[in-house]
Amino acid sequence: MSQFRALAGILRSRGWQCLLLPGGGGGGGRACRSVLAGSARSCFAGPSAPTAVNSSSSTSSSSSYVEEMYFAWLEDPTNVHESWDTFFRHTQAGAVSDGAVEGPPSALLQGRAGHQTPSMARKVVEDHLAVHTLIRAYQIRGHHVAQLDPLGILEADLDCFVPSDLITTIDKLGFYGLDESDLDKTFRLPFTTFIGGGATTLPLREIIRRLETSYCGHVGVEFMFINSVEQCQWIRGKFEPPGAMYFTSAEKRTLLARLVRSTRFEDFLARKWSSEKRFGLEGCEVLIPALKMIIDSSSAAGIDSIIMGMPHRGRLNVLANVIRKELNQIFCQFDPKLEAADEGSGDVKYHLGMYHERINRETDKTLTLSLMANPSHLEAVDPVVQGKAKAEQFYRGDTQGKKVMSILIHGDAAFAGQGVVYETFHLSELPSYTTHGTIHVVVNNQIGFTTDPRVARSSPYPTDVARVVNAPIFHVNADDPEAVMHVCRVAAEWRSTFNKDVVIDLVSYRRFGHNEMDEPMFTQPLMYKQIRRQEDVLKKYSDKLISEGVVTLQEFEEEVAKYDKICEEAYTSSKDEKISHIRHWLDSPWPDFFTAEGEPKGSRREGVLQHIGLTASSVPLEGFNLHPGVSRILRGRSELVKARQMDWALGEYMAFGSLLQEGVHVRLSGQDVERGTFSHRHHVLHDQEVDRRFCVPMNHLWSDQAPYTVCNSSLSEYGVLGFELGFAMASPNALVLWEAQFGDFHNTAQCIIDQFISPGQAKWVRNNGIVLLLPHGMEGMGPEHSSARPERFLQMSKDDPDRFPEFSGDFEVHQLFDCNWVVVNCSTPANFCHMLRRQVLLPFRKPLIIFTPKSLLRLPDARSSFDELSKGTRFKRLIPNEGPASENPQQVKRVIFCTGKVYYELARERKVLNLEGEVALIRLEQISPFPFDLVRSEVERYSNAELVWCQEEHKNMGYYDYVRPRFLTVVANQKPIWYVGRDPAAAPATGNKATHLNELGRFMDTAFNLSVFQGRKF
Ligand SMILES: Cc1ncc(C[n+]2csc(CCOP(=O)(O)OP(=O)(O)O)c2C)c(N)n1
Ligand SMILES: [Mg+2]
To answer: How far apart are CA 874 and CA 814, in angstroms?
Structure first.
């Protein structure tokens, strides 16, 4: 390097100003090349004959050229022309003596030596610059002209425009100031290309030919937007070297065999069930060998668990030929008489999931593959897959994603159109959400149902969304199976090298309609005329291999016959299947969980509570500079702990801390959850003096505790809730919570709630204990931020409003076992704590929806004593009246049932009005499943009282529609349950504070006006 520095000094001192070295001198040759002077004289004009070069880029590249020569010379002096050799030797000699050097040689290139004038020399430099620019143009834009469409009629980038800087015809050479006579001239290749293979120079004609082969054939590589030189070099190294796409005969035969399976599977289904929907893969049969190549390569790199998500198209084929579900189990799903063995509503065959452990034949290693069950809602499964993959990595300590990975398969229209794709990409690099690289495969059949791409997206490719995370995108013509295999292999290697996302865009076509019953000619007549003429890929590829002599026709036919026979035999045995076990289609089995007996060891002794409380009020790290405001909060906590009291934040701490002690992993995720939207939680403390120094006291409770994860998420609900749902799917031994910033924001994750959380078990016999924390309450904050929309959750609860259940055994547990989810609104920190613990202590898992408070977080009345957590205490589904009314129940005139925060407003008002003996206040803490048993005994206890349901929400919202029929069932329709609350409304809350208070005042008046319902009919 010092030699180079000396050379640079001499050149600069003589007015050359070619080279500036990076500060500190630590950079290597490449760094030096990128740091070039802005304006300079031509390097080749020499000090004695200065020739101004106006373009600074020309200057930089001229400098670069001298550097290239210099580095080549340093490597081996015979690499350069002897005139350069002399020049550099003299320069070096001069550098150490008096700086007297000759001008640079005029013969610049090997084979072009001779006496050249300065202008000739300049031309050579300019031509070199032009060639380097040309190479770069192909790297950047070659994919625009790649032959990606197997039909040959469409443009994968929606654009038939040919970039002007690609040499598609001779006249385009003029763009670079080159002409035909330059085609046979030899040019030195820049270090940013590998087209030379071993050669460092090539004739221009060959340079263009090789660039065309690498970038404009059946693969379009889109990667130059990636801002890592290392990653770009890596990709260039995979696609540019001559023969990069080489396959051995054995590999070709394997590929052919896989294509046979893929194609003949669809043919078989089409033959046997010609009028059934199956969303076949025809037109993109190469998906199966593609996935297998990704799996083989990943397995070779050490991956032993792959979690996959995919839409309808080709799903049965993936189940059969990638996951290897038994064929008879697939075929029997087509039998309309098949009876369901499991409870629940089940799902159609092209949505079911699967989990399978097998030996990978190519690598001889064990591999677990799971395909997640998914709803029809396209792309909704993406974040769920990521969450599950993350959880598996977490539990296995796979911190770099070297063992577990995810593959997502997409349709072209859905990939471009669905926002959750973008949300999922944005999770890909976040520390608590990354799965360390996902391989995305797009089945780009250039159509979405009946819609053309040109009206379905504004971006050139359906894959452009992936550019936001700098994922390379490999577009490939799906009718060239070897090109597909190559990109799949590269994608798998990319993932194992860089642990970043990568996209494979399988540009294909859809041979039939959207499903097999649809007529595609209605809407895409010309495309489908071409498709009818299109030979299938198996035929094309088998012909190719036969002509190459890799297989014989007979061998090929035998392979086909062999697989057809397998299908026929499976078909015969499928007829013996009379019962469908959805359980056999589980994507996430928990083998030991349902046999586990009893509760985990309890840990709510006083000492434990004190220890958790003290940790919650302190900083377990030495020398930590806490913000004074946070110190104050912690001091306040400490005072509470001394008084054996808990506010909401402490109640949550007690739940999490005690579960962690019992070895249960707790993960809390959502927007700003670390501090808490309402600044009450402070689970992550920030050092005020040291950047990025944090402390999570919850992880300092016990040395052998389970880890606690608390993570602020990206500003996404759909993606993040889906992710946490997936995380919760991986293991029952965890409390996984997602908190909405305000409860109403859950509606942008509605698809996850409607499609997975509410019906997940019924459709896919899959337990899931995800917890949703939804801040809810009418606090005068306006129409948004007020309602978490309890009515929606309750409306989807499946318990029967009209049937009084039988009370047998442990009714509470039976009810929970039967329900689709649990909906609660706790009014005390202790009950909140019990609720969270019950979620994990149950011997099964149900989603839990908790409406959490805002003002109650700090309300002194809404505190609990440690006694409420002591031995013998448990979650209260209903909190009976507290105070005089319960002592004389027969005297009570009115029983007001309510839930959540309004209780405290009612209690205050009752006290003010001195009605504590006449009005009983009963809190429903678990709203669904409805505690019929407890409500009945309360109603019986206050048999002379009229019954009121009071809520702060508007009448058409909140809980009223849910509880009313159930109360009537409890009283056998013999008594009314009167409504007290806000009137019906369109918006969940008023935007006017005064109106808010008026409404509150009015319904409080009604609640305690004991004559208001007299004489009213019900
Ligand atoms: C969220 C969502 N919206 C609409 C649909 C209805 N739908 C089913 S398939 C389909 C077209 C999908 O096109 P593409 O993603 O290209 O997949 P392809 O069917 O072509 O394989 C549509 C609109 C759906 N399933 N999900
Ligand atoms: Mg499509």
So the answer is: 17
